[in-house]
Amino acid sequence: MNRKRVLVLDLATRAPAKSFYARVMNPNFASIMPQAVAAWCEELGHDVTYVCYTGFEDLDALLAHETDVLFVQAFTRSALSAYAFSNLFRQRGVITVLGGPHARCYPEDALKHFDYVLGFADKDTIDDVLRELEPRPTFGRWVSAAQQPTSLPGVAARWKFIASTNAKEPFLKIVPMIGSTGCPYTCSFCIDAAVEYRPLPYDQLREDLRFLLTKRRRPIVGWHDPNFGVRFDDYMDVIEDTVPRGRIRFGAESSLSLLSEERLKRLRANGFIGMLPGIESWFEHGAKSKTGRADGMDKVRQISEHVNMVLRHIPYVQANFVVGLDGDRGSESFELTKRFVDLCPGAFPAFNLFTAYGRAAALNLELQRNDRVLPIPFFFLDSNHASNVRPLNHEWQDLYRLTADLLRYSFSGKRVWRRFAANRFGMVARVNYVRGRAAYKRGGYHSHINALLESDPHMRPFLEGRSNQLPGFYVQYMRAKMGPLWDALPPGAISHDHIAFRKDPDAYRTVGPRRRAPRQRALVA
Ligand code: B12
Ligand code: SF4
Predict the structure, then answer these.
(1) Distance from Cα 194 to the centre of ligand 2, integer Å
(2) What's the 3-state SS for 208-229?
(3) Domains of the chain (ranges, CATH numbers)
(4) Ligand 1 centroid distance, CA of 107 (Å)
(5) Rounded CA gap, 374 and 462, in Å?
(6) Dihedrals φ, ψ of 222, to 5°?
(7) Any idea which ligand is nearest the CA of 72?
(8) pLDDT at 381 over 60
(9) CB neighbour list of residue 159: distance below 8 Å, 6 or more residues apart
(10) Containing H/E element for 180?
(11) Ligand 1 centroid, distance to 294 Cα (angstroms)
(12) Taking the model in full, what pTM does it have?
């Protein structure tokens, strides 16, 4: 096959950036798959350039890059920037390929703007695309492997891509690793509920850790596993076999129910410094986080005790919440979350707005069928800037007011300071301080949306699903944030068919039937 010039672009953020927070955090949002695709392309004999776009790169230099094919990875929040990049490169005859969460969630839309859109991808998929490489100006081609890859290029093969991304920020320099794909649980809102759990080869992980020990004095590894705790003992064995105590620090996402004190002791001994457990709704019963039938304030107390126990062993804990769930009513769940914030001063609370990402999950089909999903532009779909699901038990104004109030409460000077003190003034304290200030500003953003619901006659009809006319606020906001990428958007890019899943539920499937389906265990892993 001809040797091709390949540019791999990981959009770790949605637009050009300026803030200190973005400089520190964005490089740590880099994904594994673009690095894996770059490594595979090299193994296949192509000339590869990899760029992690963190919002600070020189766009002119990036766009001037001579290449035959452009691979882009995008979350939905970066979809518009991805479309703009694709448009500009296609005008120069470059073939463009999209992969990642946006491609899996909104393939029918992405196909309007890319020559190829990928679901699951392995080395063969990439090879097939590179062998074919045909321009498809009207509608791209959907390609997917039958399942998640059974192995991925290790840290050594990805090292130069990791190092170039780490070099963009001075503090954390997180090395992304992954030990498994899919999840054995079946939370109806989750993209991995339909993907069978499979560990990646343990020998590869050992090799990765050994390699890393030769590169950095005390590296930090971020595990990208959807649910790290599933085969807990196996992974702990791998680390204990390979890593001398304290030489590597780790962070991971895991459901709270998997974090018993026994396990936490082992995690601490093995260098785990960060955990991101999901907290379910205060009003749902069940075994999800081992709170049994506890409800409301009882559950807040139980979860707070559990999270404080995690904090006794792991210094960095981010507690993930979802705001605007169907189980929430009035201000009660918000008030309960405030009590949690009071009872767990050391945990960083992350508030995600309930979002239905296209075809990500079975629940989204039900929401689309019930006319509850809105055509909010992709740019705002990051679980922070907008919810695209009409709330069941709230008016929009109440939801935005309560969310703004919760953010202001959780990230007020007093609570940021309490968190700083509870985090004992070290690196964790500093990271939480910077993140806390950024989160406080989002309170102002939600208040602004709330005010627009009163003052902008287009806002309420749009958010209530009575009109598809996009309020001017959204357009102005995107234009201001996207800068030069806004002018490069292809026609029709800012709107999408928000009920495409309902129209054709079986299209673009990336999973076969599961062998088993245990019940839901955690809201956000
Ligand atoms: C680990 C993780 C993170 C990590 C690492 C993120 C990263 N850059 O990879 C952290 C904590 C940093 C993170 C941050 C965020 N995350 Co996150 N995260 C996940 C999680 C749990 C696992 C993703 C993963 O790595 N899977 C393993 C890989 C191997 O599988 P895969 O992603 O399916 O990839 C396959 C294909 O998509 C394809 N592919 C993937 N990338 C590429 C790239 C190319 C070029 C090609 C060709 C193919 C390809 O090949 C892979 C193999 O088949 C998922 C939820 C889940 N359970 O999956 C959410 C998820 C991806 N995150 C989500 C969100 C919303 C976010 C944030 C916006 C949250 C926030 N408000 O800050 C940020 C955005 C970060 C960014 N880069 O823009 C959403 C994305 C929805 C969407 N459509 O955008 C998900 C699906 C969770 C959800 N709410 O449903 N996240
Ligand atoms: S939310 Fe977490 S526990 Fe539930 S299916 Fe997804 S990854 Fe698994």
Answers:
(1) 10
(2) HHHHHHHHCCCCEEEECCCCCC
(3) 5-143 (3.40.50.280)
(4) 15
(5) 8
(6) -105, 115
(7) 1
(8) yes
(9) 211, 215
(10) strand 180-181
(11) 32
(12) 0.96
